[in-house]
Amino acid sequence: MLKIQNLSLKLGKFELKNINLEVNEGEYFVILGETGAGKTILLECIAGLHKYSGKIFIDGTDIGDVPIEKRNIGLVYQDYALFPNLNVRENIKFGLKIRKFSEEVINEYVSEISKISKISHLLNRNVENMSGGEKQRISLSRVLVINPKILLLDEPLAALDPNTQNEIKTFLKKIHKERNLTTIHITHNFEEAISLADRLAVMHKGEILQTGKADEIFRNPKSEFVAKFTGAENLFEGISKVKDGIAVINVNEINIFSTNLNEGKVHLIIHPENILISKQCLLSSARNNFKGKICEISKIPNKEGIIKIVVDVGIPLAVFITKQSFEELNLNINGEIYVYFKANGVYVF
């Protein structure tokens, strides 16, 4: 569907560097990255707003020389970009009028999209005094009414309150499903990305660092930046040596065993849900077992019923357990605890 090949661009001191990306037809694809990563500039290249080196293909056709108005791509900006001198109806009609549709067809399309977007009651009102959620629905309607082949969304939820974010998120999912609309959505919010994306890419300083399904990227990051940006717990640096078919990784004088046989300086992640804890020393097949003290107990935002325990075993290990297990174990700060995790549960890169 959409293929970006060796795309580079220099704007002042900023550069997009050799971007290679493929988005499938009907896919909801999210580009995740911090502010200033180059996400918006990349969308603008796809829309035709910048000259670049490299190629962008849609359905196998190089669109480098195709004018903006003939690309059939809809771009929705974070700040809505509505025309303040036009009412809601005229804002939505704008793209259709440029494309010289008849007034009868325009009115039919505007009526249809305003019903879908639930803004029919706003059509004759001025846009300036609308809420953020209303403005975003109007902005989306103005793009969707032209029936684009690709929808580009520039941080569409960033300026909205949490309740309105959920409403717009639900609307975006509905439109995507009903129209099978190829969508590229950029955000700096990982939770937002995983709630919407079929696949995602992580972008940093003008480069695509990793692409894949959200769970794959979260569990198997390929760089320290991706691991930190996606909120990986128990991320450490160490020196790995392989002996008798298993890696022994020295982290702050603590030896951790892994079935990943990388040697030398490495990063490793031990996912908190892969760690078992007990108040008694147990016989276990897990190669990694330590005795430590609980130094932190906290609830995890957006994960009801899960408690985070941090155990100091020479390095701080975060462990996720259910609230029921926490209460049954009667855990307290400074309490002694044993932790266990398998060598194949240590991800190394």
In short:
This protein has helices at residues 39-47, 88-98, 103-116, 132-144, 162-179, 190-196, 214-219, 224-229, 323-329, and strands at 2-11, 14-23, 28-33, 53-58, 61-62, 73-76, 150-154, 182-187, 199-204, 207-212, 235-243, 246-251, 254-258, 264-270, 276-278, 288-299, 306-312, 316-322, 336-341, 346-348. The protein has 349 residues and is of the alpha+beta class.
CATH fold field value of the largest domain: Rossmann fold
- Mean of pLDDT: 94
Report Rg: 25 Å
CATH class of the largest domain: Alpha Beta
- Report the CATH superfamily of the largest domain: P-loop containing nucleotide triphosphate hydrolases
What is the overall shape?
Answer: elongated
The biggest beta sheet is recorded as: 6 strands, mixed
Strand content: 35-45%
User: What string gives the helices and strands in order?
Assistant: EEEHEEEHHHEHEHEEHHEEEEEEEEHEE
Mind explaining what this structure looks like?
By secondary structure, the protein is α+β, with helices and mostly antiparallel strands. It has 2 domains: 2-229, P-loop containing nucleotide triphosphate hydrolases (Rossmann fold, 3-Layer(aba) Sandwich); 235-348, RNA polymerase II/Efflux pump adaptor protein, barrel-sandwich hybrid domain (OB fold (Dihydrolipoamide Acetyltransferase, E2P)), CATH 2.40.50. The protein has helices at 39-47, 88-98, 103-116, 132-144, 162-179, 190-196, 214-219, 224-229, 323-329; strands at 2-11, 14-23, 28-33, 53-58, 61-62, 73-76, 150-154, 182-187, 199-204, 207-212, 235-243, 246-251, 254-258, 264-270, 276-278, 288-299, 306-312, 316-322, 336-341, 346-348. Strand 7, helix 5 and strand 8 form a beta-alpha-beta unit. Helix 2 (88-98) crosses helix 3 (103-116) and helix 2 (88-98) packs parallel to helix 4 (132-144).
